[in-house]
Amino acid sequence: MPAARSPADAPLFIVLNTGSGSQDAGHTREVIERLLGEAGRRHRVLPVQDGRRLPAVAWQAVQEARMQQGIVVAAGGDGTINAVAQAVLGSGLPFGVLPQGTFNYFSREYGIPADTESAVQLLLNGRLRSVQVGRVNDRIFLVNASLGLYPVLLENREDWKRQFGRSRVVALWAGVVTLLRGHRRMTLEMEQAGRLRTLHTSTLFVGNNRLQLEQTGLDGADALDQGRLAALALRPTGRLAMLWLLARGAFGRLGAADEVQSFSFSSLRLSVLRRGRRRSRIKVATDGEVSWMRAPIEFRALPDALSLIVPDDETA
Question: Does residue 236 carry a pLDDT above 80?
């Protein structure tokens, strides 16, 4: 829904991940500072070389923005944007994005251009829009969260990227190799809307991004407009069938596969069983970043949680 124009004189506090994407971070910073300087806009760039420092630097940016009634901006890929949004959530501050990643699902969903110069101009001239985020335990996700096979695939993908560079082709081949190695199946005990159910699956994927859902052909994009999250689970299947599912997803037809179960929810609580016992810790991926979380795992949709700078309605 349209909202007020972004404050024209608010200073910008930009958290720049110098390790995101394939662009030269020094050049990106020069472009940002040149354009903002020409516009006479107060700003401060906070570069981050070590990704482990992102949460601390994002929190610093939020504190400084609070004192000066400013705007916090994330410059990086979906993982960087997630880390900065985590700090901004609940602060009431406007949130801006300068996409620098490989896929940039979050920014593309809201019409934010990948070109740095165009994205900086958007920070100067855009409007504020309230957008939904998802939460799993104490972490948020803007694009997706998952457990089971998908976090393993993401870890392997990062290993491949370190060896062969960041590209969508490298990401695809990393997925193929992961599926050929086989995968462990899970038994999930889930509580949704007061009902209990058991689900056998290799992976549970929870989406909060219409663009990603539509590109892979998954159901549930309409649920996002209703303050819900879209989920899919893969029925246990063999390696060749998993490769076939990967191909269907690449061509936008994953949702029509018999092996895919899809549903939506506003909140979901689950445990993972192994040999009849509930696991105390589970590996969960949020926007491409993998971490261990204590069980039970609780998912929840948070509608209108961030005030994002987006293009004007006429150009979006």
Answer: no
In this structure, are 190 and 62 located in the same domain?
no
Count of the separate structural domains present in the chain: 2
CATH number where 96 lies: 3.40.50.10330
Rg value, the chain, Cα: 20
DSSP category for residue 5? B
Q: Which amino acid is at 62?
A: V
- Using a 10 angstrom Cβ sphere, with 0-12 exposed, 13-18 middle and 19 or more buried, the burial of residue 133 is buried
State the pairing for strand pair 94-99/71-76. parallel
H or E stretch including 250? helix 239-250
**C-alpha distances in angstroms, 277 versus 184, 187, 199, 272, 280?**
16, 10, 15, 8, 9
Label residue 147 by pLDDT band (50, 70, 90).
Answer: very high
CB 1 within 8 A of CB 316: no
pTM: 0.83
Residue pair 153/182 in contact by the 8 Å Cβ criterion: no
Long-range CB contact pairs, 108-117, < 8 A, 24+? 108/211, 109/209, 109/210, 109/211, 109/212, 110/308, 110/310, 110/316, 111/310, 111/311, 111/315, 111/316, 112/310, 112/311, 116/23, 116/28, 116/31, 116/32, 117/31, 117/35
What gap in Å lies between CA 30 and CA 115, rounded to an integer?
14
Backbone angle region of 254, left / alpha / beta, with phi > 0 → left and psi within -120 to 50 → alpha: alpha
- By mean pLDDT, which of 26-40, 75-89, 119-133, 142-156 is the weakest? 142-156
CA 172 remoteness from chain centre: 18
Are 169 and 110 in contact, with CB atoms under 8 Å apart?
Answer: no
User: Residue 10: helix, strand or coil by DSSP?
Assistant: coil
Range of the structural domain that residue 274 is part of: 144-286
**Is residue 196 left, alpha or beta, with left meaning phi > 0 and alpha meaning psi from -120 to 50?**
beta
Pairing mode of beta strands 94-99, 297-310: parallel
